[in-house]
Design goal:
The complex is a heterodimer of chains A (366) and B (305). By secondary structure, chain A is an alpha/beta fold. Chain A has helices spanning 2-17, 19-39, 58-69, 83-90, 104-109, 125-149, 167-199, 201-207, 212-241, 250-274, 278-295, 308-314, 318-332, 340-360; strands at 47-53, 73-79, 96-100, 116-120. The chains are: A alpha/beta (366), B alpha/beta (305).
């Protein structure tokens, strides 16, 4: 036991005394959350808009007001001529322009379907699409109400259920927790064991009476605690900075997080049994773990939209199951009994990786 | 020889096609300071790693303290001390932290066995709060030796402890080994420096995975029968080349400021000197000398080429 404590102490010295690993451990989660939270967001606020209203009647005024009163748009100018539109775009000032046809209200009363033209700056296609969706949504919304009150012949239903800007956070916080936990647990452990091999200290550890299991557990414990601290930090940031809800049970959430951390640690140890240098450990962890975690877990791309073969591969990615569990618990507030299947899969993976990594841990140099 | 403590029987080690060790057999007695001498790549490290249970022999067997190096490796690991060839301590831990760590994982404490390392550790104690990575080469070796000794092993394995450290530290290290030997510790030390052979009780000369000779340094020197001369001259390199061309020459090696020459037959020193002076057209100084341990090993190496 004393030997084990000494080993733990040594591991913490390694972590504290290496500024680079400390930066990765503490800095990265923060930076990622803040990057994804503030910089990389789908929500658009105060996009500058120009309106060319050729009819200036009651209906167009009302639609314009509705658009401008939403938080997404901010009026840049009213235009009077079609030629001004391009100028306005070229100045780079506006993201979107709206043109109402002549005699808008009269045409509407005659059931003629007057036209609202939306022109967006598509140099950034994602922004353009989002803005067009916002505008058409508002227009459809108005139209359906207007028609209901007046004649009610046309039935335009807006399918655009738009996202009040928070959905981005819903998606990325569970995703970042997954990526960070995978990175810290798997990459850092594999590197730290590979370092013992590279520096030759593994030789002395092997010759000493310290048991291999103790070496593994001693490597794992510091990183479990660090990963937990990180998970909690991200959750706190998500809840208090981005207003993310945790609708399900917190103890269940923590339990699932711990299972996932240990799965990742098992993977990390397994990697370290197969590589000899820190550099290889880093490469294998990045290529073999980080990329699949980001791409195949459903963090960035929905699994349903992946090619079929990748969908099958995604089943063996622990992060996929963890992400399902996280989203269910945090956002949907799902009860534990509905995620038993996913939990069992994750638990099975954890056991599997732990067993193979301990089996593969070499008691000699070859 | 005292009671046998290390007994090696027909050990072979292959790495694929490469034969790292071939049919190694010898034994070491309790309290012996045994040297494993040989050029780089000769198999010294492989043999030490097999004996320290870090590698399995391809064939053959060995017992240390009556324990089998393959089957009883767990028990054996408690009884041996090992200092690897390259510095293998935690560079980001301080001197004291390293020593404490190794003491603790061997279930002992610095206090308990301090008397064993006292001589060595007092030399680095002023730097005990310094990180091990910042020590000089000689101090690193002293720390590594302290760490290998802290659990009071019965047998100490040192893989090239004097490689890469300065001459003073080398002498100090050998002095320490001599002192440790007095405490009845069995020591197996490897080195590529032939002159260090004379400091051991017995040496094994290992080359290309085979043992060429095992004996005490004195016996090895006594067994050297070829006539040996030392030749000095002004143009050293020219002299060496010309000596090697002479018919009577068997071998000629530079040795400090002179050249050690062995000949096919016994020849009078004056006659030989005249012969050399005539050949190179300059004054030389030739003396008949007794072989030292390096001459013996050089001769063995040449024979084995």
């Amino acid at each position: 036991m004393k030997a084990f404590l000494a080993f733990l102490k040594k591991e913490f010295y390694h972590i504290w005394r290496d500024p680079r690993s400390l930066l990765i451990l503490i800095g990265m989660p923060m930076v990622q959350v803040i990057l994804f939270g503030f910089a990389i967001t789908n929500e658009i606020v105060d996009a500058k808009i120009a309106i060319l209203d050729n009819s200036k009647d009651e209906v167009t005024q009302e639609i314009s007001n509705k658009i401008l009163s939403s938080k997404y748009f901010k009026l840049f100018e009213y235009l009077t001529d079609k030629n001004q539109i391009e100028k306005s775009f070229k100045k780079g000032k506006i993201k979107i322009a709206i043109i109402f046809e002549n005699d808008f209200s009269q045409k509407l009363n005659r059931n003629e379907n007057p036209q609202v033209q939306i022109i967006a700056d598509a140099t950034d296609p994602n922004t353009a699409t989002t803005l067009i969706n916002y505008v058409s949504s508002i227009v459809f919304d108005y139209q359906s109400k207007y028609l209901k009150n007046k004649s009610g012949g046309l039935n335009v239903v807006s399918k655009m259920e738009y996202n009040p800007g928070l959905k981005g956070v819903y998606l990325f916080v569970p995703g970042i927790i997954t990526v960070i936990l995978m990175l810290i647990s798997a990459m850092m452990t594999s590197i730290s064991i590979a370092r013992e091999k590279e520096k030759g200290t593994m030789e002395i550890l092997l010759v000493s009476p310290i048991k291999p299991l103790m070496v593994i557990v001693g490597k794992v414990v510091p990183y479990i605690s660090l990963a937990l601290v990180n998970a909690v930090t991200i959750l706190l940031l998500g809840v208090f900075v981005f207003g993310l809800p945790i609708r399900g049970s917190l103890p269940v959430l923590m339990l699932e997080i711990i299972i996932f951390i240990i799965t990742a640690l098992g993977l990390g140890i397994f990697i370290s049994t197969k590589v000899e240098t820190q550099q290889n450990a880093l490469l294998v962890s990045l290529m073999g773990l980080l990329l699949p975690t980001i791409i195949l877990s459903g963090f960035i791309y929905p699994i349903e939209s992946l090619p079929e073969i990748l969908q099958y591969i995604s089943h063996i990615i622990p992060a996929k199951w963890f992400l399902i569990i996280l989203r269910d618990i945090m956002i949907k507030g799902t009860e534990f009994r509905f995620i038993i299947k996913e939990t069992l899969i994750l638990f099975g993976m954890m056991t599997f990786f732990l067993i193979i990594s301990i089996k593969n841990y070499k008691i000699r140099l070859e | 020889m005292n009671k046998v403590i290390i007994n090696i029987e027909n050990i072979y080690k292959y790495y694929g096609e490469i034969k790292a060790l071939e049919n190694i057999s010898f034994s070491i007695g309790k309290g012996e300071l045994f040297g494993l001498i040989g050029p780089d790549g000769g198999g010294k490290t492989t043999l030490i790693r097999i004996l320290t249970t870090l590698l399995k022999p391809t064939r053959g067997n060995a017992q240390i303290n009556g324990l089998d190096i393959v089957k009883d490796f767990k028990k054996l690991r408690k009884q041996i001390g090992y200092m690897p060839g390259r510095f293998s301590l935690y560079e980001d831990l301080t001197v004291e932290e390293n020593l404490k760590f190794f003491a603790t994982i061997f279930n002992t404490s610095i206090k308990e066995n301090y008397y064993l390392i006292e001589d060595i550790y007092t030399q680095i104690e002023p730097f005990k709060d310094r990180r091990a990575g910042k020590l000089s080469g000689g101090m690193k070796q002293k720390l590594a030796l302290s760490c290998a000794l802290i659990h009071k092993p019965d047998i100490l394995f040192l893989d090239e402890p004097t490689t890469g450290i300065d001459a003073v530290s080398r002498v100090e290290l050998w002095d320490m080994l001599k002192k440790l030997k007095k405490q009845n510790l069995t020591i197996l030390v490897s080195t590529p420096y032939m002159d260090e052979a004379k400091l051991c009780d017995r040496v094994a000369f290992i080359q290309k995975g085979k043992i060429m000779e095992i004996n005490s340094p004195l016996t090895i020197i006594e067994e050297f029968e070829e006539p040996l001369y030392s030749v000095k001259g002004d143009d050293f390199y020219h002299l060496l080349l010309e000596l090697r061309k002479m018919k009577i020459t068997k071998t000629a090696f530079p040795f400090g400021d002179s050249i050690h020459l062995t000949t096919n037959r016994n020849i009078d020193t004056h006659e030989l000197n005249d012969m050399i002076e005539k050949r190179i057209g300059a004054r030389t100084e030739t003396k008949k000398i007794n072989a030292n341990i390096e001459d013996c090993f050089m001769a063995k190496m040449i024979n084995n080429m």
